[in-house]
Specification:
Blueprint: E1 3-9, H1 13-24, E2 31-36, H2 43-50, E3 56-60, H3 66-81, E4 85-88, H4 100-108, E5 114-118, H5 123-128, H6 131-148, E6 161-164, H7 165-169, H8 182-192, E7 197-201, H9 215-240, H10 245-274, H11 280-305
Parallel strand pairs: 1-2, 1-4, 2-3, 5-7
Antiparallel strand pairs: 4-6, 5-6
């Protein structure tokens, strides 16, 4: 299968040449796309001046689209050129290209729709990761699991990703986030089309490179985007696509829980204002409705855990339409 590797480039000039040389030397790689995302260091021109190879394609974005936008630019062009497997790695030297053959094998022979890296497979990888990055990845990973529905994925924010071109072509690429939310948003859209994902254990390489991701994006933008994706996924999977026990247990649980909290707070404030202790019956009504609400919500998540896609879109018994 024709495998295309895409490297989005923004302020990666000092790392890019060794990566390009190594990728081009791999027999598994059919073509390499360098996407200069309006880089102020003119990384694309730098590569063009220093490396000439028939397998190398250099694309230039007229404006900075973000890591997601640059990746989508490369993937779309690769599909037009006839690529069958699309791989994205970063240009900062943190991703070891030795995993590319295994990724290609998982898509080509084992028929996985989407393959991504997993940095938390062993303790050494976690210990070597910078503390702030480790904490941030753990928090984002937990939130992404819930919003995307892929509870079996342990490193959802990892940017070492690959997808079968046929699967990519049925994704609504115009709706996928172009920013640093790209990897998380990809998982949401993959869940909607019921794609099967496989993780590859790998070790990241951490040097002195600086991330372009701003902490304000994580603290303010990401939680909102995850909530929006979670609501969209629940509405589509549990009410538009079909009905299940989760379709009933979630609204019941939220209703009981909100009623119990509201009821209890109202009578607690009332008792403070008038100086009277709330009756045991009032306390029991509040407590029981809260407990019932939690039980129904947990029932929903039990079903949601078991609803992770298991049938590959590119398997022989499934036809993409």
């Amino acid at each position: 299968m024709k495998t295309a590797v895409i490297i989005p480039c923004y302020k990666t000039k000092k790392f890019i040449l060794p990566i390009v040389h190594n990728v081009l030397s791999m027999k598994e790689v059919w073509r390499l796309y360098i996407v200069d995302d309006c880089c102020p260091e003119k990384t694309g021109e730098y590569v063009k001046e220093n490396i000439q190879d028939t397998k190398l394609m250099i694309l230039f974005n007229n404006e900075n689209l973000g890591v997601g936008g640059a990746t989508l630019t490369g993937w779309q062009q690769a599909c037009v050129d006839g690529a069958e497997i699309l791989i994205k790695i970063d240009g900062d030297g943190q991703m070891d290209i030795c995993y590319i053959p295994k990724i290609v094998n998982l898509i080509q022979k084992h028929k996985y729709d989407y393959v991504k890296g997993q940095r938390f497979w062993n303790l050494e990888s976690f210990v070597d990761m910078p503390r702030k990055r480790a904490f941030g990845n753990m928090a984002l990973s937990f939130i992404t699991k819930i919003s995307s529905g892929y509870y079996n994925i342990f490193d959802p924010t990892n940017g070492y990703i690959a997808i079968n071109a046929k699967v990519f072509e049925i994704l609504p690429s115009k709706k996928i986030s172009k920013s640093f939310f790209f990897e998380s948003d990809m998982l949401f859209h993959l869940n909607i089309i019921r794609a099967v994902i496989k993780e590859v254990p790998m070790i990241a390489i951490y040097g002195k490179e600086k991330s372009n991701l701003k902490i304000s994006k994580i603290l303010f933008d990401f939680p909102y985007l995850h909530i929006v994706n979670f609501v969209k996924r629940i509405v589509f999977n549990y009410y538009l696509r079909g009905m299940s026990v989760g379709s009933i247990s979630l609204p019941l649980g939220l209703t009981f829980f909100v009623f119990g909290i509201t009821f209890g707070c109202f009578f607690w404030i009332r008792s403070l204002c008038i100086g009277e202790i709330a009756t045991s019956g009032t306390v029991m009504v509040s407590a029981l409705t809260i407990i019932c609400g939690i039980q129904f919500i947990l029932l929903f998540f039990v079903e949601d855990f078991g609803n992770v896609p298991k049938t590959s879109l590119i398997s022989e018994d499934f036809e993409i339409k």
